[in-house]
Amino acid sequence: MKTSMNVLLTGASGTIGTEVLQQLIQLEHIRLTVFDVKNARTKKLFAPYKNQINIVWGDISNEEDVSRIPAKLDAAIHLAAIIPPLADAKPELARKVNIIGTRNIIQHLQNTSPEAFLLYSSSVAVYGDHIQNPYISVTDPLNARTEDIYAQTKIESENLIQHSTLSWSIFRLTAIMKNHKMTKLMFHMPLSTRMEICTPRDTARAFTEGLKHRSELSGRIFNLGGGERCCISYREFLERSFHLFGLGAVNFPDHAFAERNFHCGIYTDGNMLEDIVHFRNDTIDSYFIDVSRSISFTKWFLSSMFSSIIKQILLNQSEPLKAFKSKNENKMNLFFFPKKNPVSVLHS
Fold this sequence. Notes:
Elements: E1 5-10, H1 15-24, E2 30-36, H2 40-46, E3 53-57, H3 63-66, E4 75-78, H4 86-89, H5 91-112, E5 117-123, E6 135-136, H6 149-162, E7 167-173, E8 175-176, E9 194-198, H7 200-210, H8 214-217, E10 220-224, E11 231-233, H9 234-245, E12 266-267, H10 271-277, H11 284-294, H12 297-305, H13 307-315, H14 319-326, H15 329-335
Helix pairs in contact: 1-7, 5-6, 7-10, 14-15
């Protein structure tokens, strides 16, 4: 590794990005450039680090903005992306940021830093539905459904990177959990889903440590997950989460949760990345300990007092349930297994 490294970080204001930022600024040999959109939130977020980082404000989908990123970079960690549920609500924005933004970063690096090492965050979503077989390896086909805009943008971005002239490595991230917000997406995942989580700090460590292992990582794709100590069923995950937040039982009606067409699973080859960069510290239990510490008694008390109202508000957002009630076959097939028609018996 060089005495000093000039590193670019995109998406530094995101859940993983803020962890990567905090880890990188602790390293004396890193000279860090952050590229992010300028708004009230990001200005406040980056203010404490203004003397430690070089900030380039801009829109990643704008070539001119990206061109202001310094040349002669040694590495880039590209995390910037529009994720669900915003990616579902604004698919064109997701395509602009995720695909065009990635293309712009690649072109800028090829033109100004052709020797740079690019680390890219992809997603377990690219594998599509694994409800029947939860075990996933990096050699599995990419079967994301057409309607999953986020997954499709990740697949296209992966292709752009693999066909670039850069040295690169792609990490396909499992479900990254930190004080996970309950949105309508919670009903998209079947309760029987086997899932493997990873915390943002462990995920960030994989990227920061990855900078030291270019020769082992270059030109390769890895599944990034927390390992066997971070595996759980979605039903148990929700039950433990609801208990901590004071919401009681996960007692939603039938058809509130989808039966299929989501993603997540358990990586069979996740140890390949761990054996190189040694990023895992957290477990599913340490995750829930952190969650419990983040919930004040007042918040827990209010949630427990109004749990039935909160759960009804959540239920009202269930798209699988709306599809089921609509009796529209096309909508139902997005979330549920098609009903088998009874076999006709012909009598002679």
